[in-house]
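Quick check before the chapter quiz. The format below is the same one you will see on the exam, so make sure you can read both the input and the output lines.
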Amino acid sequence: MPKGKIRIRLKSYDHRLIDETCQKLIDTATKTGASFVGPVPLPTKKEVYVVTRATFVDKDSREHFGLKIHKRLLDIVNPTNQTIDSLMHLDLPAGVNVEVKMG
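Here is the expected output.
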């Protein structure tokens, strides 16, 4: 039986998609008998890109485009072998970046 915890970091552009993925991970952990902490919402990173509309004369006319990267942190405490197996075979939606650390 593994000791310690599994730390999962999730990143996505869509907050609904990341919340749905967190719920799938929580359901899987509770079915297999492991406890969890989270999901903890981490600060949202905002990237703004400024593009000029015209090429030469109208430099003051600009468009702003933005991206928001939503992040969540989930800890699975006291995982069992069944928890690890079920997490490995879990189908997660595309568009969510998942980083897993065992510790």
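If your answer matched, good. DSSP finds two helices and four strands in the chain.
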